[in-house]
Amino acid sequence: MSYLLKRLGFYAFTAWAAITINFFIPRVIPGDPVMSLISRAQGQLSTDAVQSLYVLFGLDSQRGLVEQYFDYWGQLLRGDLGSSFLFFPTPVSTVIGDALPWTLALVGVTTVVSFLLGTGLGVLAGWRRGTWVDAVLPVTTFLSSVPYFWLGLIAITLFAGPGGLFPSSGGFDPGVVPGWDLSFVGSAVQHSLLPAATILLSSMSSWILSMRNMMVTVSAEDYITVAHAKGLSERRVMVTYAARNALLPNVSALALSLGLIVGGTLLVEIVFSYPGLGFLLFQAVGAKDYPLMQGIFLVITLSVLVANMLADAAYLLLDPRTRKEG
Fold first, then answer.
1. According to the 3-state scheme, what is the secondary structure of 28-94?
2. How confident is the chain (326 residues) per 10-residue block, as mean pLDDT?
3. Is domain 95-323 in CATH 1.10.3720.10, yes or no?
């Protein structure tokens, strides 16, 4: 129990530090975001209108920095992330809410599938060393060293474009109205297959290699020898004794991967112009949309923290030693 409380305290402190840094981002970056917005709009505003924009974006210089800081916390507690410069006057929470499901559907599902397939193949490769399974290791080593976006460019060249099997950009076909109907879902799935395949090929290789190496290490432990001596079946020893203990490092890696889902495949979404959170962050940086960048950074930070909390809970279930005090 004390272990769990310590971890919760650590996560609470980390969340406070991340939110505090997020508050200072637009205040330390050179330039004036409000004046940048006005210049892009090419409009002439009165002094009162300009001052209203500063108040709207929480950058009112007439209020002290401490007061602005507590106002920012108040906005977050109300679920208010401010208004986007790029999509003004749409709230940041609405913009992120529109893009987040695309990233979760693409990268979230792909990451989980990659983990399951890679871990399963890694268990077989580590347990049955010297068999045909080892022949795929050079291929996986090569694929794990290739960035997502480079595989994406190759995939577009080979399988997309005029006469290709898959579309090269976008989340759905032009003219299709988003909704829970077969035409939209089918179009969205077709557009996601190519980026999903590039992510799957590249990320699955790392799971295979890491799990295989851990299985080799665990197979030499004394409790594996004892399990064999007790006459347990090969499958039970492999799954219950070896794989369960070898899985622990991969659980931590999975937590980080899940936490970085919302921004970890930025370049893939840029390559495919996929309407997810990574592509939205790219647009926000290009337009100097500080409120939108703040909101996306906050979502990324909180998702990493939540994923690590889930990893700690998984550790407690998988490894009884972490449940013992002292």
1. HCCCCHHHHHHHHHCCCCCHHHHHHHHHHCCCCCCCCHHHHHHHHHHHHHCCCCCECCCCCCCEHHH
2. 74 85 75 65 66 68 73 81 77 86 81 84 79 72 74 80 73 74 79 82 79 81 82 81 78 69 67 81 78 83 79 68 54
3. yes
